[in-house]
Specification:
The complex is a heteropentamer.
Chain C: H1 11-38, H2 44-70, H3 77-96, H4 101-104, H5 114-118, H6 134-158, H7 163-182, E1 194-195, E2 199-200, E3 203-204, H8 208-234, H9 236-252, H10 258-284, E4 286-287, H11 294-307, H12 313-332, H13 337-351, H14 358-374
Antiparallel strand pairs in C: 1-4, 2-3
Helix pairs in contact in C: 1-8, 2-8, 2-9, 2-10, 2-11, 2-12, 3-6, 3-10, 6-10, 8-10, 9-10, 11-12
Chain D: H1 9-18, H2 22-30, H3 38-48, E1 52-56, E2 62-68, E3 76-81, E4 97-99, E5 104-105, H4 110-124, H5 130-143, H6 149-158, H7 162-176, H8 182-195, H9 201-213, H10 217-266, H11 274-292, E6 295-298, E7 305-308, H12 314-318, H13 320-342, H14 351-373, H15 384-387, E8 389-392, E9 395-398, H16 399-421, H17 423-433, H18 435-440, H19 445-470, H20 479-492, H21 497-518, H22 521-538
Antiparallel strand pairs in D: 1-2, 1-5, 2-3, 3-4, 6-7, 8-9
Helix pairs in contact in D: 1-2, 2-4, 3-4, 4-5, 5-7, 6-7, 7-8, 8-10, 9-10, 10-16, 10-19, 10-20, 10-21, 11-13, 11-14, 11-19, 13-19, 16-17, 17-19, 20-21, 21-22
Chain E: E1 5-14, E2 17-27, E3 32-37, H1 43-51, E4 58-63, E5 66-67, H2 73-79, E6 81-84, H3 96-106, H4 111-124, H5 126-130, H6 141-153, E7 159-163, H7 171-185, H8 194-204, E8 210-214, H9 218-224, E9 227-232, E10 235-241, H10 247-254
Parallel strand pairs in E: 3-8, 3-9, 6-7, 7-8
Antiparallel strand pairs in E: 1-2, 1-4, 4-5, 9-10
Helix pairs in contact in E: 3-6, 4-8
Classes of the chains: A alpha/beta, B alpha/beta, C mainly alpha, D alpha+beta, E alpha/beta.
The complex binds adenosine-5'-triphosphate (ATP) (2 copies), urea and magnesium ion (2 copies).
Residues 43-44, 86, 163 of chain E line the site of one magnesium ion.
Organism (chain C): Nibricoccus aquaticus
InterPro entries (chain C): ABC_transp_permease (IPR001851), ABC_transptr_urea_perm_UrtC (IPR017778), LivM-like (IPR043428)
Membrane topology (chain C): Multi-pass membrane protein
């Protein structure tokens, strides 16, 4: 049987492997699932897995290799924005197609990338809406020192101000230059291990009650942060933390007991009680159990939003290919932009003209078993990449 | 009286509270060959360290070479004004050949840029050949210096010192590890240098000291300062010197 | 190792052989390989790939100049590589102009780099303006890293920091710089750095010929640097350099100001690395602070060690072979290639202390030994 | 709206449950404030834990119930009526047995829980634990609800505990800030000035603004003074807090760097795999934790196997950490010894190459850890005795931090004893300074090398057990520490344990103070690095230079 | 009685070049043997072959009935070979006292035995006692040499190997060392103190201490040795009773 080559471009080594390996796993699972049902346009998917190794020039090189050497029909990949930025010119130059599955800062809309990712208005602003509704008055912005948190916080700053929150009630610090706010919030480098100072600051910030932390801390650094947070006697009751980068997968490495009641916001939670989701989880677990792919961990696996958005991406691509009747990128793009829908584990997702996705947004509260209890949902939120300045008064 | 080429005045050196040199005064005339002896730990090598810039004296002391205050200069500047030194433990460039060791030591400009464009001329080559013969390492010129035996390294280091043609030579235990005959040859070599160069030689081999100090002065250091100074015989018969240094033996 | 008792090989004969070999390789790299590409026998992908490898080779030479020849193990060479890259990157960013993302979206009337629009800038900061000029940018590729190297080297060598202290200090320097460049308000693109380049000297990056010319420029630079370093190592300067490596303190007592020599080499190596970085960035398509991380410098050290320290062919061979291995293995063994690479380092260090370049010598020594036994 | 006087607290709760609108529901709950009994607290807890349900009978009547007791095979339990606490009877008059899946869970949201908390808080005013009482008092105070004032004043007259008294005074003053009477406000501000609690900041600021807006200079001035007192207090808190944080950051640095001070400082092996030794210690802790719990399943290299657990709970489970400490040491030491035998022993004469080989080792170990445990971080929970804190005058002393400081003191002392007071230590130092000569004197250098490297690696493992309590545990954990470790050892002066101690504490202190001053951890870190560069200008061979006279050291 | 140490046809290579070309050499218990020769003939190489710092390519080394050449250097040391290398090899960052203690620790000498042995070394080299707490690395050259000899004595050797022990040492102490070597050899007891007397006994072990001495200083050799060997270009060229070390022999074999 004929095959179609599909690229998988994630970091399987280096610092980002912590997050990205799971996406490789779920993609392989999805391909198997589709292949078992006959593939795409009658062709079996032949994955070409490459390791970007958390190294951005290497990402660009691997992208080139996938497009120019392997001639893949589509690529699923990237986690960090900088990796996406580094491969973007390659996709544009070769007119390739990349599906990008991870919450990101927006300010971009390439014809060669399909963003299944959460845009800022599909994650951060709904979460803030929820907090405001719950009566929180003070917000401490904390993030890792890179573009996604920086951008998100700048957007949130405008958003909060537009909602009448006074500047004095926004913690973490502002940096102004020439009258322009160029940074809002507190930032720590990747791999930062010492949050004593920041937690002490939050403790004082929250001393008078009514405060919440909005965290865009990335991966690893959440662990020392939350351990310190708990050690300082701060809890979800005294000052809740809403995190945008902790999904169920990251949660596996966190001290769940000490986090109970903290908040998360995604377009998917494993705890969604829908038949589609239950089936997805069961199938994925079954696939893991019998998988022979090297380096796959079988125990204690969970599902999370970036995984599901990767999964959705593959099916959307399949739908687009089938609609276009061809693997040709221009045809597939056209099909994608025509508003295809797929009933994924997180509910229905619909493609938009601007290469983003309309989807449901959920707010969840962490539980001791590492799952989120869904406490609020927003249906069919349209993904908007250009948010900076939008809420400016 | 000619002004001394080296004047060491009231110099002390303390290491972690230990006084290695105490109020030392020492003068060396132009062209003089001075022998310095003294018990182990008397401060002879430290004395050389101070002159050659490896160590700085305690504040207050003065060391002048010609009219230059060497305490204000660092090692390579001191070398460039004409003070060369042979160390007590042989120290050569072990990864370089014997020949290159000498090339590196050859008198001439020492700057970065001059070294980029330096070529050996025939005069240099002749001089190097002579030196190799003198130190009897002619047949080992392309050996790596690190492969030489202990005594050969001693000779090589002497050769390096000569190659740089310093005004003042500081020679620490040149005879150590040499056979009696070679020791004698070294002595003759040093004597032949005297007059044109000024030398300070440290040695424990009394036969050798007798040989090189026949016309010159001997200084005895003890506990960091001068115990006595004079002709070889005077020093040898000095009761205190016998007590702390020579012992009851036949020396 | 040559036996001290054996007659020294006539060095002039050796030199002639070497010149021949270098010339052949140079012609292949500079002329034949690009021609093959133009004729379609070598893919565009491989041209840009080899262009990058050659940049890495330059970086490796700069490391070896310091470590192999002068005994200064710098764990910060990637800093100079990146600085060169950033200088080139600034120029390339300004060349994007109307082709950028914000411009496409109609939000960038003044042709600013996208990240500035994003930070709310409407006019270009002054220090960016001269970088419109290619010539000025190239001058900065030399000046800025040279200046950083000079100041740092001056301080370090003046106070006689050496050995691991020097290594750790250079590591701290590059780490510090990477943290600094991560900051958005430095106006150097923050964590994303510079990317999405569109054209260089009027040529668009969409055209494979652009990559070919970049490749040729890199190959020429490499050959020139190789020859230059080779000549340098044969001068008296080279001798002093190696003397410093083997006995820095002794050198002082021969009248050489070791610090001046070290400073010269350090700046020279920084310039080589910087030029390599400037050539690398247009070919790789991105420069960001990640490239300044200490690990990157460490990687370059490993290339040198694997290739063969204190030789000039060694770093080139090491850089190319390890990166080629990496390119291949990240595709062929995406899961376990680091295991392979790590194992390789261990094996090379344990069993091949002279690196890859020592293999021919080992083989010939082996045969010589067998031959001499028989006779 | 007010609840009918006849309603018992239980009935009010039942009524609230049946109220659909969430604001209205909060209001019903609000009527419980200041009254109620233990049963209300229990009901609220059940509510929060999703154990309250609404039972709809066939006739459409809705009854709130709580499910309790043993589940039977069908998952059914006894149902207690919320309104009277009695068993719910079916139409046949017999108690019904219901299963959760047939019932509708009573929903709750964050604000509702806060309302419930307010009720419980007042209950808690008389709680036996002072900490609980303080929390209750603070919640009431922050709400600035004048209605609660009498309850608080009443409590103040009864209260014995000094800390609770302060909290009560603060709460009363905060509520009085809202008073219409300027004199009361003034007195409240005075009181707040005397108390100068951090929590009052925002309230005083609000009062100040209000006073300024209302053109009441006297009040504004009082507010300004009160604020000044609070800020003074804050400065003191930050100062002592920074001291403590610096000490603890330094201790952690010390703990993680000590192993390297041995393998690199003493042995001169540029040990890039040090970080992975830390990771091994941390993973050992993880395994021990799981063995004490329910076990662990792993599937490295496609093979699956299970490590059985002991299923302990409570204190027995939490004692896992005490076992993990020695085991982390031993595991890492064993790996270190294996490493020494296979790789390091060939490199003693080539220190710079040891850097490359150990870097290779570190890559390999990272990959192995990834293959065995997966690339995700794993979860290590802190035992309760390490997860609380002491708060003295608003300075927080986390127990984990205090423990690390104490532990650092212990191991530094231990290492110092071993190295300087035991024959083994003497031999170690002799071998590390001159292997050839030591062997000529009969020292079994191979064994000493092995033990020394084992000791260094073991210490790294021990550090791993500690950092597992403070940070993440993943295959790349070591990378977070390696740069700092080398920096610490080098700044202290290679080969000098005392130097390592001082440099670790110095860097920790500098880091925390700069962070405090600059308010930016990144800038703080940059400044520390620059300070180190400048420091080495002054001391090019580290803090403690071990001088030797030889020309080529 | 077989010789204490016996080298037969020992060949040693350094980095591919053959330095020793079949050295034969014997030392009996209680004997002082001088190994002489010009610079670079292989004396140090011979000693290193015995201590194990260099491994031999062919030939054999027997010590006390054991094949020494198959043992590691530390096993050789524990078998009873003590050495003072050329260049001294002091542990630079250990104090003088610690330098001395290393030998005691390795050979398990404790308590009174250790104290006596130390006292003996202090009598031999009084300067060491004054410098106990200073770092070995900062001592003067001569002081280091004394420390190296003292340290070797404390390992309780049966055979003491000295590579140019008088190098850099002041005349009075050379005399002192010479006397000591003679005393050790003759199991003589110094006429000073009882403590020293005991110490000597423990060190000299009833005359079982043999000494192999490399020395350039001919008078010193004549003074202390029983026999001599002279080397040239990696082989022994002449040997015999010390009395046969005439000036002619010296001229022929030891001078250039
Ligand atoms: N860098 C130093 N640190 C500490 N002490 C030192 C240092 N340099 C020299 N000393 C001490 O100063 C004293 C004099 O040493 P020096 O080497 O000058 O003696 P010397 O006269 O050359 O002896 P020798 O004849 O044995 O070579 C010794 O006690 C030595 O320990
Ligand atoms: N690493 C090496 N490589 C090659 N040859 C070496 C090496 N080390 C020493 N040699 C050579 O071995 C020979 C013997 O050296 P050795 O040190 O044994 O001489 P020696 O008799 O002790 O001389 P000395 O009296 O000067 O100490 C010398 O010719 C020396 O050059
Ligand atoms: N897009 C992110 N999370 O980098
Ligand atoms: Mg001396
Ligand atoms: Mg010798």
């Amino acid at each position: 049987q004929e095959t179609v080559k599909v690229g998988v471009l994630h970091s399987l080594s280096g610092t980002m492997a912590i997050s990205e390996t799971s996406l490789r796993d779920v993609l392989l699972f999805t391909f198997d699932e589709i292949n078992a049902k006959g593939g795409v346009l009658g062709k079996k998917i032949e994955p070409v897995v490459v390791d970007g190794a958390s190294n951005w020039p290497l990402f660009a090189e691997k992208a080139k290799q996938l497009l120019e050497q392997d001639k893949v029909a589509v690529t699923f990949g990237c986690w960090t924005s900088v990796s996406r930025k580094s491969v973007l010119p390659v996709y544009e130059k070769n007119n390739g197609l990349l599906f990008y599955p991870v919450q990101y800062e927006g300010e971009e809309e390439s014809q060669n990338v399909f963003y299944t990712a959460e845009a800022v208005n599909q994650q951060a602003t709904p979460a803030v809406d929820y907090l405001l509704e719950q009566g929180y008055k003070k917000f401490y912005l904390l993030g890792s020192d890179y573009v996604y948190p920086q951008t998100t916080n700048l957007v949130l700053l405008e958003y909060l101000l537009s909602k009448g929150v006074p500047l004095a009630n926004i913690g973490g610090g502002l940096k102004e230059e020439g009258g322009k706010v160029i940074s809002a919030g507190k930032y720590t480098p990747f791999g930062h291990t010492d949050y004593q100072q920041i937690v002490a600051e939050i403790k004082q910030f929250a001393a008078g009650g009514g405060a919440a932390v909005i965290s865009t801390l990335n991966g690893d650094t959440n662990v020392p942060f939350f351990k310190e947070y708990a050690a300082a006697g701060l809890t979800a009751d005294t000052c809740p933390v809403v995190s945008f980068s902790i999904s169920e997968d990251e949660f596996r490495g966190l001290p769940a007991k000490q986090l109970v009641g903290q908040l998360g916001c995604w377009t998917y939670f494993q705890s969604i009680e829908s038949p589609a989701n239950k089936k997805f989880i069961a199938d994925f677990q079954a696939w893991l159990a019998k998988s022979t792919v090297s380096g796959i961990v079988k125990e204690g696996r969970v599902t999370c939003s970036p995984m599901v958005l990767s999964y959705d991406g593959v099916y959307l691509w399949k739908a687009a290919v089938e609609k276009a009747g061809s693997f040709d990128v221009d045809a597939v793009r056209k099909a994608l932009q025509s508003g295809l829908s797929f009933d994924g584990p997180g509910g229905k997702v619909t493609t938009q003209k601007n290469m983003h996705l309309t989807k449901n947004v959920f707010i969840g509260e962490t539980k001791a078993d590492g799952q989120f209890k869904i406490i609020k949902s927003f249906d069919n939120v349209v993904g908007e990449p250009w948010l900076k300045g939008k809420y400016k008064k | 009286m000619p002004s001394p080429i080296l004047a060491v005045e009231d110099v002390s050196k303390t290491y972690d509270g230990f006084k290695a040199i105490t109020n030392l005064n020492f003068y060396l005339d132009q062209g003089e060959l001075r022998t310095v002896i003294g018990p182990n730990g008397a401060g002879k090598s430290t004395f050389f360290d101070l002159i050659s810039g490896r160590a700085k004296p305690n504040p207050g002391g003065k060391i002048t070479f010609g009219d230059i205050d060497v305490t204000q200069r660092n090692e390579y500047e001191i070398n460039r004004i004409g003070i060369g030194r042979k160390f007590q433990t042989p120290s050569v460039y072990s990864e370089h050949t014997v020949f290159d060791n000498l090339v590196l030591s050859l008198k001439g400009p020492r700057g970065v840029f001059s070294s980029l464009f330096k070529r050996l001329n025939s005069g240099d080559r002749d001089r190097l050949d002579d030196l190799l013969k003198l130190i009897r390492l002619d047949d080992k010129r392309s050996w790596k210096a690190g492969q030489l035996a202990h005594g050969e390294k001693q000779w090589l280091e002497i050769g390096m010192l000569l190659a740089s043609e310093p005004k003042l030579l500081l020679i620490d235990e040149p005879a150590a590890g040499m056979t009696d005959a070679e020791t004698h040859r070294t002595g003759e070599l040093l004597l032949s240098l005297a007059g044109k160069h000024s030398l300070i030689v440290v040695e424990h081999d009394m036969g050798f000291v007798r040989q090189i100090a026949s016309n010159g002065k001997v200084t005895v250091l003890h506990q960091g300062s001068v115990l006595c100074e004079g002709k070889f015989d005077e020093v040898q018969n000095n009761q205190k010197v016998r007590e702390v240094y020579l012992g009851r033996g036949k020396h | 190792m040559t036996s001290p008792l054996s007659a020294p090989i006539t060095s002039s004969k050796r030199l002639k052989i070497e010149i021949g070999v270098v010339a052949v390789i140079a012609i292949f790299l500079i002329v034949i390989f690009p021609l093959l590409n133009a004729w379609g026998m070598v893919s565009n992908f491989h041209v840009s790939l080899w262009g990058k490898y050659l940049c890495y080779a330059l970086l490796a030479i700069s490391v070896d100049l310091l470590w192999g020849y002068t005994g200064l193990l710098s764990l910060g060479q990637a800093l100079f590589f990146s600085l060169g890259g950033y200088m080139m990157g600034m120029h390339l960013m300004l060349m994007i102009g109307e082709l950028g993302k914000y411009a496409e979206a109609g939000k960038n009337p003044n042709g600013l780099p996208d990240f500035m629009i994003f930070l709310g800038y409407t006019t270009l900061p002054d220090f960016w303006k001269p970088f419109f000029s290619f010539g000025f940018s190239m001058a900065m590729v030399v000046l800025i890293p040279g200046l950083v190297a000079y100041v740092f080297g001056f301080l370090a060598f003046r106070s006689r920091i050496k050995g691991v202290y020097f290594s750790i200090l250079t590591q701290a320097l590059t780490y510090c710089a990477s943290l600094m460049f991560f900051q958005n308000n430095l106006l150097m693109g923050g964590n994303n750095g510079f990317t999405d380049f569109k054209r260089i000297l009027g040529h668009t990056f969409a055209d494979p010929a652009t990559y070919r010319w970049l490749y040729i420029a890199t190959a020429i630079t490499l050959v020139l640097v190789y020859v230059g370093c080779r000549v340098l190592s044969r001068t008296k300067f080279g001798m002093v350099q190696q003397a410093i490596r083997d006995g820095e303190n002794r050198v002082l007592f021969s009248g050489y100001a070791a610090a001046h020599f070290k400073l010269f080499v350090f700046v020279l190596a920084a310039l080589i690395a910087s030029v390599a970085g400037a050539l690398f960035v247009p070919q790789a398509g991105i420069i960001n602070p990640e490239e300044m991380k200490p690990e990157k410098s460490l990687e370059a050290v490993v290339w040198v060690a694997v290739g063969g320290r204190a030789t000039l062919a060694g770093p080139i061979i090491g850089a190319i072979s390890i990166n080629a291995l990496k390119s291949w293995a990240t595709r062929a063994f995406p899961d376990s290639w680091l295991l392979i690479l790590g194992g390789l380092f261990i094996i090379v260090v344990l069993f091949l202390p002279g690196g890859i370049v020592s293999i021919p010598g080992k083989i010939s020594a082996f045969y010589k030994a067998r031959f001499s036994k028989k006779s | 709206m007010s609840a009918a006087a006849a309603d018992t607290p239980r009935q009010i709760v039942a009524k609230a449950i049946l109220t659909e609108n969430s604001a209205a529901r909060r209001e019903v709950i609000g009527t419980l404030v200041g009254q109620g009994d233990e049963s209300v607290a229990a009901l609220f807890t059940a509510w929060r834990e999703d154990a309250l349900f609404i039972h709809s009978s066939a006739d459409g009547a809705k009854t709130p119930v709580q499910l309790t007791g043993e589940k039977d095979s069908a998952g059914r339990q006894n149902a207690l009526r919320v309104d009277d606490g009695q068993l719910l009877n079916g139409p046949d008059g017999k108690p019904l047995r219901l299963s959760a899946s047939e019932l509708t869970v009573v929903q709750h949201d964050r604000m509702l829980r806060l309302s419930m908390k307010a009720v419980i808080d007042l209950l808690d005013l008389a709680a036996s634990s002072p900490a609980k009482r303080i929390q209750a008092v603070q919640t009431l105070g922050f709400a600035q609800d004048a209605e609660k004032l009498p309850a608080l004043i009443n409590r103040l007259s009864l209260e014995q505990d000094a800390k609770v008294k302060i909290a009560l005074r603060e709460a009363i003053a905060l509520i009085q800030l809202k008073s219409a009477d300027d004199a009361v406000k003034l007195a409240a501000l005075k009181e707040l000035k005397d108390l100068h609690t951090l929590a009052s900041t925002d309230f005083i600021k609000a009062a100040q603004k209000e006073a300024e807006a209302a053109k009441k200079p006297e009040l504004a001035e009082a507010a300004r003074i009160a604020l000044g007192a609070v800020e003074n207090h804050r400065t003191a808190v930050n100062f002592f807090g920074t001291l403590f944080r610096g000490l603890s950051a330094g201790s952690i640095l010390l703990v993680v760097a000590l192993g390297l001070a041995i393998t690199f400082g003493l042995m001169r092996v540029i040990n890039m795999a040090h970080g992975e030794m830390i990771a091994i210690g941390a993973y050992t802790t993880y395994i021990v934790q799981n063995v004490f719990g329910s076990g662990l399943a792993l599937s490295p290299f496609g093979l699956s196997f299970t490590i059985p657990g002991m299923n302990t709970t409570g204190l027995a489970y939490e004692s896992y950490f005490l076992f993990a400490l020695p085991l982390s040491f031993l595991t890492a030491a064993a790996v270190g010894i294996a490493l020494e035998r296979t790789v390091i022993q060939f490199l003693y004469r080539r220190p710079l190459e040891s850097l490359l080989a150990t870097w290779g080792v570190s890559l390999v170990l990272q990959q192995l850890l990834k293959l065995i445990f997966g690339s995700n971080n794993v979860q290590v929970s802190s035992p309760s005795y390490l997860s609380g804190n002491w708060t003295v005058f608003d300075v927080v002393f986390g127990w984990n931090r205090v423990f690390v400081i104490g532990f650092a003191v212990v191991i530094v002392f231990g290492i110092w004893m071993i190295l300087t007071k035991t024959p083994l230590g003497l031999l170690m130092r002799a071998v590390m300074q001159n292997r050839g000569m030591a062997s000529c004197m009969g020292v079994r250098t191979e064994r000493v090398n092995m033990m020394t490297f084992g000791l260094g690696s073991g210490l790294a493992g021990l550090a791993g057990a500690f950092v597992s309590q403070l940070g993440n545990v993943g295959p790349f954990l070591g990378q977070n520490y390696i740069v700092d470790c080398f920096m610490t050892v080098v700044v202290g002066g290679v080969g000098n344990i005392a130097g390592t101690v001082i440099s670790a504490l110095g860097i920790g202190m500098a880091d925390q103070s700069l962070q405090q001053i600059l308010g930016n951890p990144v800038l703080g870190k940059i400044c520390v690095l620059i300070a180190i560069i400048l420091f080495l200008q002054w001391r090019p061979a580290g803090l403690f230079v071990t001088r030797s006279r030889s020309l080529d050291e | 009685m077989p010789a204490l140490l016996q080298l037969s046809q020992v060949e040693t290579y350094i980095g591919g070049s053959r330095i020793l070309r079949g050295v034969d050499l014997e030392i009996n218990a209680g004997e002082v043997v001088a190994l002489m020769g010009r610079n670079g003939v292989g004396k140090t190489t011979t000693l290193k072959s015995i201590t194990g710092m260099l491994s031999i390519r062919s030939g054999s080394i027997l010590f006390d009935g054991q094949r020494l050449d198959k043992m590691t250097p530390d096993a050789r040391a524990r078998a009873g070979i003590g050495s003072v290398p050329q260049g001294r090899d002091i542990f630079p960052h250990l104090t003088v006292e610690e330098n001395l203690h290393v030998g005691l620790v390795v050979h398990g000498r404790k308590g009174k035995e250790a104290r006596n042995a130390l006292d003996y070394v202090y009598t031999l080299f009084p300067v060491l006692k004054e410098m106990l707490s200073r770092k070995g690395g900062v001592l003067s050259g001569g002081q280091q040499q004394q420390l190296a000899i003292g340290r070797a004595l404390l390992t309780d050797p049966k055979l003491l190997i000295l590579d140019e022990p008088t190098e850099g040492i002041q005349p009075s102490i050379i005399d002192h060392i010479g006397d000591t070597l003679k005393k050790l050899k003759k199991e003589g007891i110094p006429d000073d103190e009882v403590a020293v007397e005991n110490a000597i006994k423990t060190i000299a072990k009833e005359g079982r201490l043999a000494i192999l001495l490399v020395e350039q200083y001919v008078d010193f050799c004549r003074d202390v040795s029983d026999r001599f060997y002279a080397m040239d270009r990696g082989v022994v060229v002449i040997s015999g009773e010390i009395a046969t070390l005439t000036d002619e022999v010296v001229k022929k074999h030891l001078q250039v």
